Protein backbone atom coordinates (compact mmCIF):
# COMPACT_ATOMS: atom_id res chain seq x y z
CA UNK A 1 0.00 0.00 0.00
CA UNK A 2 2.82 2.40 0.86
CA UNK A 3 4.35 1.75 -2.57
CA UNK A 4 1.04 2.56 -4.29
CA UNK A 5 0.76 5.80 -2.31
CA UNK A 6 4.23 6.88 -3.39
CA UNK A 7 3.47 6.04 -7.00
CA UNK A 8 0.20 7.97 -6.80
CA UNK A 9 1.94 10.98 -5.22
CA UNK A 10 4.63 10.81 -7.85
CA UNK A 11 2.05 10.87 -10.63
CA UNK A 12 0.34 13.85 -9.03
CA UNK A 13 3.65 15.72 -8.81
CA UNK A 14 4.39 14.98 -12.48
CA UNK A 15 0.90 16.08 -13.51
CA UNK A 16 1.04 19.31 -11.51
CA UNK A 17 4.54 20.07 -12.87
CA UNK A 18 3.27 19.55 -16.40
CA UNK A 19 0.34 21.92 -15.84
CA UNK A 20 2.72 24.52 -14.39
CA UNK A 21 4.91 24.15 -17.50
CA UNK A 22 1.95 24.52 -19.87
CA UNK A 23 0.73 27.71 -18.23
CA UNK A 24 4.04 28.98 -16.89
CA UNK A 25 6.25 28.86 -19.99
CA UNK A 26 4.22 31.41 -21.99
CA UNK A 27 4.63 33.88 -19.11
CA UNK A 28 8.37 33.25 -18.86
CA UNK A 29 9.28 34.33 -22.41
CA UNK A 30 10.55 37.89 -22.56
CA UNK A 31 7.96 39.56 -24.78
CA UNK A 32 8.76 43.06 -23.50
CA UNK A 33 12.27 42.97 -24.94
CA UNK A 34 10.74 42.79 -28.42
CA UNK A 35 9.68 46.43 -28.13
CA UNK A 36 13.17 47.52 -29.08
CA UNK A 37 15.23 44.37 -29.60
CA UNK A 38 15.05 42.36 -32.82
CA UNK A 39 15.14 38.55 -32.32
CA UNK A 40 18.21 36.66 -33.46
CA UNK A 41 17.26 32.98 -33.85
CA UNK A 42 13.60 32.12 -33.46
CA UNK A 43 12.17 28.79 -32.35
CA UNK A 44 11.32 28.07 -35.98
CA UNK A 45 14.89 28.74 -37.11
CA UNK A 46 16.29 26.50 -34.38
CA UNK A 47 13.82 23.79 -35.34
CA UNK A 48 14.95 23.97 -38.97
CA UNK A 49 18.64 23.89 -38.02
CA UNK A 50 18.11 20.66 -36.04
CA UNK A 51 16.07 19.24 -38.91
CA UNK A 52 18.84 20.00 -41.43
CA UNK A 53 21.49 18.49 -39.16
CA UNK A 54 19.40 15.36 -38.73
CA UNK A 55 18.92 15.07 -42.50
CA UNK A 56 22.56 15.81 -43.24
CA UNK A 57 21.78 19.03 -45.12
CA UNK A 58 24.27 21.89 -45.15
CA UNK A 59 21.94 24.85 -45.24
CA UNK A 60 22.59 28.26 -43.75
CA UNK A 61 19.91 30.67 -42.63
CA UNK A 62 19.51 33.76 -44.77
CA UNK A 63 17.93 36.73 -43.03
CA UNK A 64 18.24 40.50 -43.31
CA UNK A 65 16.30 42.87 -41.08
CA UNK A 66 14.24 45.60 -42.71
CA UNK A 67 12.06 48.19 -40.91
CA UNK A 68 8.39 47.82 -41.79
CA UNK A 69 8.24 51.37 -43.13
CA UNK A 70 10.79 50.40 -45.77
CA UNK A 71 8.91 47.31 -46.94
CA UNK A 72 6.96 47.77 -50.17
CA UNK A 73 3.36 48.76 -49.33
CA UNK A 74 2.30 46.16 -51.88
CA UNK A 75 3.91 43.37 -49.84
CA UNK A 76 2.46 44.64 -46.56
CA UNK A 77 -1.04 44.72 -48.06
CA UNK A 78 -0.62 41.39 -49.83
CA UNK A 79 0.49 39.64 -46.63
CA UNK A 80 -2.39 41.12 -44.65
CA UNK A 81 -4.90 40.04 -47.31
CA UNK A 82 -3.45 36.56 -47.59
CA UNK A 83 -2.79 35.83 -43.92
CA UNK A 84 -4.88 38.08 -41.69
CA UNK A 85 -7.29 40.50 -43.35
CA UNK A 86 -8.71 41.60 -39.97
CA UNK A 87 -5.31 42.21 -38.38
CA UNK A 88 -6.03 45.79 -37.34
CA UNK A 89 -9.53 45.08 -36.02
CA UNK A 90 -8.95 42.06 -33.76
CA UNK A 91 -7.01 41.60 -30.53
CA UNK A 92 -4.96 38.63 -31.66
CA UNK A 93 -7.72 36.16 -32.46
CA UNK A 94 -10.05 36.05 -35.44
CA UNK A 95 -13.06 34.37 -33.84
CA UNK A 96 -15.01 34.18 -37.11
CA UNK A 97 -11.99 32.68 -38.90
CA UNK A 98 -11.47 30.10 -36.15
CA UNK A 99 -15.14 29.18 -36.25
CA UNK A 100 -15.07 28.65 -40.00
CA UNK A 101 -11.87 26.60 -39.71
CA UNK A 102 -13.40 24.35 -37.04
CA UNK A 103 -16.53 23.84 -39.12
CA UNK A 104 -14.45 22.78 -42.13
CA UNK A 105 -12.29 20.50 -39.97
CA UNK A 106 -15.41 18.79 -38.62
CA UNK A 107 -16.88 18.48 -42.09
CA UNK A 108 -13.71 16.91 -43.52
CA UNK A 109 -12.95 14.98 -40.30
CA UNK A 110 -9.33 16.15 -40.11
CA UNK A 111 -7.24 18.98 -38.66
CA UNK A 112 -6.67 20.83 -41.90
CA UNK A 113 -7.84 24.43 -41.95
CA UNK A 114 -6.39 27.16 -39.76
CA UNK A 115 -7.74 30.44 -38.54
CA UNK A 116 -4.40 31.64 -37.19
CA UNK A 117 -3.85 35.37 -37.17
CA UNK A 118 -0.51 37.05 -37.85
CA UNK A 119 -0.01 37.49 -34.09
CA UNK A 120 -0.67 33.78 -33.48
CA UNK A 121 1.75 32.87 -36.25
CA UNK A 122 4.35 35.18 -34.74
CA UNK A 123 3.92 33.59 -31.31
CA UNK A 124 4.59 30.15 -32.79
CA UNK A 125 7.47 31.32 -34.95
CA UNK A 126 9.22 33.03 -32.05
CA UNK A 127 8.71 30.63 -29.17
CA UNK A 128 7.00 27.32 -29.97
CA UNK A 129 7.25 24.10 -32.00
CA UNK A 130 5.35 23.10 -35.16
CA UNK A 131 3.22 20.52 -33.32
CA UNK A 132 -0.56 20.93 -33.39
CA UNK A 133 -1.27 19.36 -29.99
CA UNK A 134 -3.62 21.09 -27.50
CA UNK A 135 -0.75 22.01 -25.17
CA UNK A 136 0.97 24.04 -27.86
CA UNK A 137 -2.31 25.72 -28.77
CA UNK A 138 -2.84 26.80 -25.15
CA UNK A 139 0.68 28.21 -24.95
CA UNK A 140 0.22 29.93 -28.29
CA UNK A 141 -2.98 31.58 -27.09
CA UNK A 142 -1.31 32.95 -23.95
CA UNK A 143 1.73 34.27 -25.85
CA UNK A 144 -0.56 35.78 -28.50
CA UNK A 145 -2.48 37.61 -25.79
CA UNK A 146 0.80 38.89 -24.29
CA UNK A 147 2.12 40.06 -27.66
CA UNK A 148 -1.06 42.03 -28.35
CA UNK A 149 -0.99 43.59 -24.87
CA UNK A 150 2.70 44.48 -25.02
CA UNK A 151 3.46 45.46 -28.61
CA UNK A 152 1.89 47.82 -31.12
CA UNK A 153 0.28 46.42 -34.27
CA UNK A 154 3.02 48.04 -36.31
CA UNK A 155 5.73 46.26 -34.30
CA UNK A 156 3.93 42.90 -34.47
CA UNK A 157 3.67 43.21 -38.25
CA UNK A 158 7.33 44.26 -38.51
CA UNK A 159 8.45 41.25 -36.47
CA UNK A 160 6.30 38.90 -38.54
CA UNK A 161 7.60 40.20 -41.87
CA UNK A 162 11.17 39.70 -40.65
CA UNK A 163 10.91 36.20 -39.17
CA UNK A 164 8.37 34.47 -41.43
CA UNK A 165 9.75 31.50 -43.37
CA UNK A 166 9.85 32.03 -47.14
CA UNK A 167 11.73 28.98 -48.35
CA UNK A 168 14.40 26.55 -47.21
CA UNK A 169 16.75 28.62 -45.07
CA UNK A 170 15.10 31.90 -46.12
CA UNK A 171 13.56 33.99 -43.38
CA UNK A 172 12.06 37.45 -43.64
CA UNK A 173 10.80 39.63 -46.46
CA UNK A 174 14.16 41.19 -47.31
CA UNK A 175 16.01 37.88 -47.69
CA UNK A 176 13.08 36.43 -49.66
CA UNK A 177 12.86 39.41 -52.00
CA UNK A 178 16.57 39.35 -52.74
CA UNK A 179 16.59 35.56 -53.19
CA UNK A 180 13.60 35.30 -55.54
CA UNK A 181 13.56 38.66 -57.31
CA UNK A 182 17.08 40.04 -56.89
CA UNK A 183 15.89 43.26 -55.27
CA UNK A 184 15.14 44.76 -51.87
CA UNK A 185 11.72 44.25 -50.31
CA UNK A 186 11.29 48.00 -50.65
CA UNK A 187 11.32 47.69 -54.44
CA UNK A 188 8.78 44.92 -54.93
CA UNK A 189 5.95 45.57 -57.36
CA UNK A 190 2.39 44.39 -56.84
CA UNK A 191 2.60 41.03 -58.62
CA UNK A 192 5.90 40.12 -56.93
CA UNK A 193 4.38 41.01 -53.57
CA UNK A 194 1.30 38.90 -54.30
CA UNK A 195 3.47 35.90 -55.22
CA UNK A 196 5.51 36.17 -52.02
CA UNK A 197 2.35 36.40 -49.93
CA UNK A 198 0.80 33.48 -51.81
CA UNK A 199 3.65 31.15 -50.80
CA UNK A 200 3.41 31.78 -47.04
CA UNK A 201 1.08 28.83 -46.24
CA UNK A 202 3.84 26.43 -47.38
CA UNK A 203 7.06 28.17 -48.45
CA UNK A 204 9.02 24.93 -48.45
CA UNK A 205 6.74 23.17 -50.91
CA UNK A 206 5.70 26.15 -53.03
CA UNK A 207 8.16 28.66 -54.46
CA UNK A 208 6.91 32.22 -55.06
CA UNK A 209 8.45 32.06 -58.52
CA UNK A 210 7.14 28.59 -59.29
CA UNK A 211 4.21 27.79 -61.59
CA UNK A 212 2.22 25.54 -59.29
CA UNK A 213 -1.56 25.79 -59.41
CA UNK A 214 -1.59 26.61 -55.71
CA UNK A 215 0.65 29.67 -56.11
CA UNK A 216 -1.11 30.86 -59.26
CA UNK A 217 -4.57 30.73 -57.71
CA UNK A 218 -3.56 32.47 -54.48
CA UNK A 219 -1.52 35.07 -56.36
CA UNK A 220 -4.48 35.82 -58.62
CA UNK A 221 -6.85 36.19 -55.70
CA UNK A 222 -4.55 38.39 -53.62
CA UNK A 223 -3.78 40.58 -56.64
CA UNK A 224 -7.45 40.82 -57.54
CA UNK A 225 -8.40 41.96 -54.04
CA UNK A 226 -5.60 44.54 -53.99
CA UNK A 227 -6.80 45.88 -57.31
CA UNK A 228 -10.46 46.06 -56.30
CA UNK A 229 -9.50 47.93 -53.12
CA UNK A 230 -7.58 50.53 -55.09
CA UNK A 231 -4.17 49.47 -53.81
CA UNK A 232 -3.06 48.79 -57.37
CA UNK A 233 -3.78 51.50 -59.91
CA UNK A 234 -2.46 49.92 -63.07
CA UNK A 235 -4.11 47.01 -64.86
CA UNK A 236 -2.21 43.75 -65.04
CA UNK A 237 -1.85 42.29 -68.54
CA UNK A 238 -2.76 38.65 -68.83
CA UNK A 239 0.01 36.30 -70.04
CA UNK A 240 -0.09 35.29 -73.67
CA UNK A 241 0.60 31.61 -73.00
CA UNK A 242 -2.55 29.53 -73.27
CA UNK A 243 -1.69 27.39 -70.25
CA UNK A 244 -0.98 30.36 -67.98
CA UNK A 245 -3.52 31.34 -65.36
CA UNK A 246 -4.54 35.00 -65.70
CA UNK A 247 -4.11 37.24 -62.69
CA UNK A 248 -7.71 38.39 -62.84
CA UNK A 249 -9.73 35.19 -63.10
CA UNK A 250 -13.17 36.79 -63.01
CA UNK A 251 -14.93 40.09 -62.42
CA UNK A 252 -16.61 40.53 -59.05
CA UNK A 253 -18.17 43.42 -57.19
CA UNK A 254 -16.30 44.86 -54.19
CA UNK A 255 -19.00 43.66 -51.80
CA UNK A 256 -18.48 40.11 -53.03
CA UNK A 257 -14.72 39.98 -52.61
CA UNK A 258 -13.70 36.42 -51.73
CA UNK A 259 -11.93 35.59 -48.49
CA UNK A 260 -8.75 33.56 -48.47
CA UNK A 261 -9.10 30.28 -46.59
CA UNK A 262 -5.81 29.06 -45.17
CA UNK A 263 -5.16 25.34 -45.39
CA UNK A 264 -2.96 24.15 -42.53
CA UNK A 265 -2.53 20.71 -44.05
CA UNK A 266 0.15 22.29 -46.24
CA UNK A 267 1.65 24.44 -43.51
CA UNK A 268 4.97 23.18 -42.11
CA UNK A 269 6.05 26.45 -40.57
CA UNK A 270 4.84 27.66 -37.20
CA UNK A 271 1.64 29.02 -38.39
TrEMBL record:
Pfam family, any one: Transgly
Gene that encodes the chain: mtgA
Topology in membrane: Single-pass membrane protein
Cellular component terms (Gene Ontology): peptidoglycan-based cell wall; plasma membrane
Domain of life: Bacteria
PANTHER family per UniProt: BIOSYNTHETIC PEPTIDOGLYCAN TRANSGLYCOSYLASE, MONOFUNCTIONAL BIOSYNTHETIC PEPTIDOGLYCAN TRANSGLYCOSYLASE
UniProt KW keywords: Cell inner membrane, Cell membrane, Cell shape, Cell wall biogenesis/degradation, Glycosyltransferase, Membrane, Peptidoglycan synthesis, Transferase, Transmembrane, Transmembrane helix
Annotated GO MF terms: pentosyltransferase activity; peptidoglycan glycosyltransferase activity
Domain Glycosyl transferase family as annotated: residue spans: 61-226
Annotated protein name in UniProt: Biosynthetic peptidoglycan transglycosylase
Keyword Ribosomal protein set for record: no
Residues covered by region (Disordered): 236-271
Similarity-based family: Belongs to the glycosyltransferase 51 family.
